[in-house]
Amino acid sequence: MARIPTVYITDFDKDHLEVEPYWDSFYIFSNDAGEASSSDGCGWLGNMEDEPDIPPVKQVVVAICAMEKKSGSKPMKEILTRLEEFEFIRTVIFPEEVILKEPVEKWPLCDCLISFHSKGFPLEKAQAYTDLRKPYIINDLDMQYDLQDRRVVYSTLQREGIELPRFAILDRDSKDPSKRELIEGEDHVEVNGVIFNKPFVEKPVSAEDHNIYIYYPTSAGGGSQRLFRKNTRNSYVQIGSRSSVYSPESRVRKTGSFIYEDFMPTDGTDVKVYTVGPDYAHAEARKSPALDGKVERDSEGKEVRYPVILSNAEKLIARKVCIAFKQTVCGFDLLRANGKSYVCDVNGFSFVKNSSKYYDDCAKILGNMILRELAPTFHIPWAIPFQLDDPPIVPTTFGKMMELRCVVAVIRHGDRTPKQKMKMEVRHPKFFALFAKYDGYKDGHVKLKKPKQLQEVLDIARGLLAEIEQKRADPETEEKKGKLEQLKSVLEM
Q: 3-state class of 63 per DSSP?
């Protein structure tokens, strides 16, 4: 019997065919006369005398439903590229225009949905879609409403026993007068009977509002540090290299609802934690925006971040946050202060930037999670792979034992003299002339190490001290007498 030619039809309207909705293609056949006909009794390609039945391989369709700025970001692309390496996974991104303008009945079909809220995203439509299609959900959509309200976030963290800074909520929208009492003093506020001495933090209850203020006591000069989201317009500044700005205003805001909390004395860094499921957390530190407001950037203009190893207690916090908010992919902020770790914000869905290791881990965990859930349903021949966090077991003549992979040691001898430093602010023209002499304006700094250079600094110090003794120095130089004597003593040693 002659081989029957086949015709492969794609991009058909699935809604008008009585086939399983997850089929990606459909086959029809042509007879020797060239007339098209369906193969009787054949739901799959085949049922021919000279070819065996070979059903098409089912792939799990993983859809990304988010605003284009998020779904088209570099981290998302990196992770989706790695997800596509799974034989049984295919990814699709819902176009922003479809999300915003089309009814959910016309949204593409999927088996697994990764959807998350950001500014302008219609969260209620995403919920309607999941109710209609019932895909496997990576990040719970209902809880994403809670993440938009810091009051609910703090309440959830408290309920789970997660450490928070001491706080009180001033709810000016409440009809209960006991929830909107504010008494302000020069160096403190009393919120519903709870006193906060400066420095304290004032956060809007809306998690979408990033205008967080830190108020300082008069002993530290007063005023406030005003934090804001980087690279956005602010009434004070519009510079991508800043994350906060100082204001002389010391009075708290009089309109709106806020959370007031103790300012936590950290080492000048914030720890950003990113979970991928309850058993994985990546952490890195950045310079705190409360420090001086200037963002540290590398040669490529990216914010400098430092790798952080989480303690066992912090890993447990990450697990609790992930489970409590039902967000598989979740970011939150930790403050390390007074020997403890405090959660000060939960951001919901967020990715690490510029980390190939994180992209690899995230894609592997998500891919395995999705197939573990859906492979049995779709009869996909997928076996659960060896997990990274499984203990490495190897057979030996004495039985099975755990394998020692490596030993890492950090060794430093202790026979070192601590560095002796002194800092001195100088404004005298002689110092500026020395700065210019050694091309300080070219690089923004100058390092003087040679004996001749240090001698020049010493000569300036001696000369200024002589002017002070002779009553010829200006008042600002006279105020520096103690520092100049210290500088002279150091250089004469």
A: strand
- Note if the bond before 199 is cis, omega within 30 degrees: yes
Q: Would you kindly state where each structural domain of the chain is located, as residue ranges?
A: 166-262, 429-492
Q: Describe the strand order of the beta sheet including 200-204 as a list of residue ranges.
A: 167-170, 258-262, 200-204, 212-215, 224-227, 244-247
- Express as a percent the part of the chain with pLDDT over 90: 57
Q: CB under 8 Å to 302, separation ≥6 — which residues?
A: 353, 354
Q: Looking at the predicted structure, is the pLDDT value of residue 176 above 50?
A: yes
CB 366 within 8 A of CB 276: yes
Nearest to 116 by CA among 91, 92, 138: 138
pLDDT of 395: 56
For residues 225 and 7, which has the higher predicted lDDT (pLDDT)?
225
Categorize the per-residue pLDDT at 231 as very low, low, confident or very high, splitting at 50, 70 and 90: low
In which residue are the tokens 């409403």 written? 145
Q: What is the mean pLDDT of the chain?
A: 83
What are the angstrom distances between the C-alpha of 388 and each of 362, 368, 372, 391, 395? Answer: 12, 11, 15, 8, 19
Give the Cα-Cα-Cα angle 373, 375, 380 (nearest 5 degrees): 175
Query: Mean pLDDT over residues 128-148, rounded?
Result: 97
CA angle 25, 26, 31 (to 5 degrees): 145
What predicted TM-score, i.e. pTM, was given to this entire model?
0.67
Contacts of 326 (CB under 8 A, 6+ apart): 139, 140, 142, 143
For residue 380, pLDDT beyond 60: yes
User: What are 471's two structure tokens?
Assistant: 């009553």
Which of 42, 24, 23, 31 has the alpha carbon at shortest distance from 7? 31
Q: At what angle do helices 356-374 and 74-83 cross, to 10 degrees?
A: 50
At the topology level, CATH places domain 166-262 in: D-amino Acid Aminotransferase; Chain A, domain 1 (3.30.470)
